[in-house]
From TrEMBL:
Stretches of the chain forming a coiled coil according to its record: none
Cofactor list: [2Fe-2S] cluster; [4Fe-4S] cluster; [3Fe-4S] cluster
Domain 2Fe-2S ferredoxin-type: 11-100
Pathway: Carbohydrate metabolism; tricarboxylic acid cycle; fumarate from succinate (bacterial route): step 1/1
Protein name: Succinate dehydrogenase and fumarate reductase iron-sulfur protein
Pfam family name, one: Fer4_8
One biological process term in Gene Ontology: tricarboxylic acid cycle
Family to which the UniProt record says this protein belongs: Belongs to the succinate dehydrogenase/fumarate reductase iron-sulfur protein family.
Enzyme Commission numbers on file: 1.3.99.1
């Protein structure tokens, strides 16, 4: 019996790769590398071939080549992935141009060169938000006895320990795109993992910075971090846990959202409408408002869109009826609360 001949599937595929060396290039550009690729080849192997045979100056990170270290994270066809676990042939279905795969550095972090990004800001945020366990055990007891963890407790943060800090979630985070000072999903996940650890001694200290400006309350719930996590970690669940912990330990009045809502109610009670010029101050305080809103205020003034000053905001007609309605609603709320 003659075995059928197995033909190796090959195809010429062009890799359109982002190039940028800030030291010599005025702006980024793209180079295209057409190469013949066998079925089963990953994007990382294709990049290695290009570097070895076509463009030795092409820069990218890689190490384990097995989806463990996270160093080869990059945007492939505009989605953040690990190059070492992404099959070239699978990506052809997502290409904008036939047989052309777009390769770019992950977003929301500065580019050092080509596909290599600067992770220093991530490390700095891990340091700021206490991304480690500060042991409860006295130093003179360390090494003399074990600090046992119950299996049930470990299950709480087991998934979070799978994070490899590839920064794919940071790359896809809509809030980080708008505000580079935002804590980022990866650092929130690490913070949750440490907060849930009973060996840790700085829970309150960490929670204090997590609920401050650019912290956990700034997450917009777009879920893109969870959707694009290469390890399929439920990052949003960790963020929800941090928020629930903050509300439980610090109360509802200690959040920007609660302060914003309280300012709304106060304005409606007093005048039946919002006093917009005071809203940022009541929500975030005077110093935050001056630091963050002043440039916008100047732009609004320049375009004649400044909200009226507080003394010009008059109460709406029938304000007494509105106050009676609010009083009744508050009474019902208090009654329900005590049931």
């Amino acid at each position: 019996m003659t075995m059928p001949e197995v033909k190796e599937e090959k195809r010429e595929i062009t890799f359109r790769v982002y190039r940028f060396n800030p030291q010599i290039d005025a702006s980024p550009f793209y180079d295209e590398y057409p190469i013949t690729v066998e079925k089963g080849i990953t994007v990382l192997r294709a990049l290695n071939y290009i570097k070895e045979h076509i463009e030795p100056r092409l820069s990218f990170r890689s190490f384990c080549q097995a989806g463990i270290c996270g160093s080869c994270a990059m945007r492939i066809n505009s989605v953040s992935k690990l190059a070492c676990t992404t099959q070239v042939w699978d990506e052809l279905a997502f290409a904008d141009r036939e047989n052309v795969i777009l390769v770019e550095p992950i977003a929301n972090l500065p580019v050092i060169r080509d596909l290599v990004v600067d992770m220093d800001s991530v490390v700095g945020k891990i340091e700021k938000y206490f991304g480690w366990v500060e042991s409860k055990m006295p130093e003179n007891q360390m090494g003399k006895k074990e600090f046992n963890i119950a299996e049930a407790e470990f299950k709480l943060y087991d998934a979070a320990t799978d994070c490899i800090l590839c920064a794919s979630c940071i790359s896809e985070c809509t809030m980080t795109k708008a505000n580079k000072e935002y804590i980022t999903p990866a650092v929130l996940l690490k913070s949750y993992r440490m907060e849930a650890d009973s060996r840790d001694a700085v829970h309150d200290k960490r929670l204090g910075v997590l609920v401050s400006d650019n912290g956990v309350w700034d997450c917009t719930h777009c879920y893109r971090c969870m959707e694009h996590c290469v390890k399929h970690i439920p990052i949003m669940e960790a963020i929800h846990h941090i928020r629930e912990d903050a509300v439980q330990k610090r109360g509802l009045s200690d959040t920007p959202g609660a302060k914003h809502a309280a300012a709304f109610v106060k304005d409606i009670e007093k005048k039946g409408r919002l006093v917009e010029s005071l809203l940022p101050i009541r929500t975030n305080g005077l110093s935050w408002t001056v630091k963050n809103m002043l440039p916008m205020a100047f732009k609004m003034t320049k375009k004649g869109k400044t909200p009226p000053p507080p003394f010009m905001v008059k109460a709406v007609p029938g304000i007494e009826n509105l106050r009676s309605m609010l009083k009744e609603l508050k009474s019902r709320g208090n009654s329900n609360h005590h049931k």
